[in-house]
């Protein structure tokens, strides 16, 4: 059932949220929580949360669910995964001791002291919110999963994407602009046309299966979290279920990455991506990495985490007016990217950005 203004409407509510996992986007947790709470408040019957799990198989997803139950929640499981890199199969007691250590300090200190890796920080604090909401609303949690052959193919394809991106970074550092641009193009095309395509097809099939079950039950809701780059997949599922009167679909993009989304949409439609657009995207990636490294060195990365969207949008804006030749020169002369940021009007005009760079 779908609840609106106190009345019941026999509608299954599906909310798709564009959220990037593994980033330092702590500032996105509050809007995530608000949207998820609103979704839960407006739905009845069986409630399902589908979490992005990259390329896990069905059996791996079951094992993951067992581990979450063992450690007492998603946030504890995040800590267990981190501790497992240091100690094989950490005990529940060890996880709880580490959690107490985190709880005894502020989020800012946890980030600046490096108590958790950057790609686990936002995940941990988001999962704390999910644990809290689950205890209140009692929803089910499903980990994204795929048939084993599909999961292996996805893993192989994303491995290729990572290699192309690493090569692009290396070539940029060597001042080889054209080769770096080619590698970025290969990374984006491999990700969008191959890796994401295979993954999204499998993901949508599973989502449709869940929807069929809820329709038979006559009520329920699904909340999906998947990276913002999968916006075309959300459109595809919306087109498929949009004609079904008993399904109400909404999409929210928390990340707002104009350059990546424009490139992804062009590739998804089979169109050519202009070199200038790719070059600006490539420069933005390098520039943002430089900002992260700089703030990490100063041990104030928590400011970035709490203003992640602000930093990202400002750095994207900073590259928008640069020509292809200007970006080529920046690469080939190995210009200090941090100096470009520090002297850019976008950063100079913002008190938060200007005060810490």
- Structural category is alpha/beta
Uncertain runs with pLDDT below 50, 5 residues or more? 1-9
Mean pLDDT: 88
Shape descriptor reads: globular
| Biggest beta sheet attributes | 5 strands, parallel
What is the percentage of strand-forming residues? 5-15%
Rg is 21 Å
Range of helix content: 55-70%
Number of strands: 7
- Measure the end-to-end span: 50 Å
Compressed to H and E, one letter per element, the order equals EEEHEHHHHHEHHEHEHHHHHHHH
Strand order of the largest sheet: 5-4-6-3-7
Q: How many H/I helical runs?
A: 17
Task: Give the structure's gist in a few sentences.
The chain is α/β, with parallel strands linked by helices. It has 17 helices and seven strands.
What does this structure look like?
The structure is a single chain. The protein has 357 residues and is an alpha/beta fold. Helices cover 65% and strands 10% of the residues. The chain contains 17 helices and seven strands. The protein has helices spanning 29-41, 58-71, 74-84, 92-103, 107-112, 118-137, 148-173, 177-217, 231-241, 258-268, 275-297, 301-306, 308-319, 324-332, 337-342, 345-348, 351-356, and strands spanning 2-4, 7-9, 12-18, 47-51, 140-143, 221-226, 247-253. The strands form two sheets. A five-stranded parallel sheet has the order 5-4-6-3-7, sandwiched between helices. A two-stranded antiparallel ribbon has the order 1-2. A hairpin with a 2-residue loop joins strand 1 (2-4) and strand 2. It is globular. The termini are far apart.
